[in-house]
Amino acid sequence: MHHGDVSPEIAAGLLALKERIKAAKIPPSQLDQTINVAIWNIREFGKQPRSEAAIHYIAEILGQFDLIALVELRDNLHDYGRVCEILGPSWDLVYSDWIDDSGGNRERVGFLFDRRAVSFNGLAAEVDAPRAKKAKEYLAKQSFWRAPYMCSFRAGNFDFIVLATHARWGDSVDGRAAELALLADWIDGRFKQKAVEDTDLIVMGDFNTPSLNDKTFKALTKRGLQVPNSLVELKVGDTTVQGSNLGKSARYDQILHLPTLAERFSNRGGTLDFYVSEAHIKELFPAGGMTPTQFTYQLSDHFPIWVQIDTDIDGQRLTQIVQNGKS
Question: Looking at beta carbons, which pairs linking 231-239 to residues 24 or more positions away fall under 8 Å?
Answer without folding.
Answer: 231/255, 231/269, 231/270, 231/305, 231/307, 234/270, 234/271, 234/305, 235/270, 235/271, 236/23, 236/24, 236/270, 236/271, 236/272, 236/273, 237/23, 237/24, 237/25, 237/270, 238/25
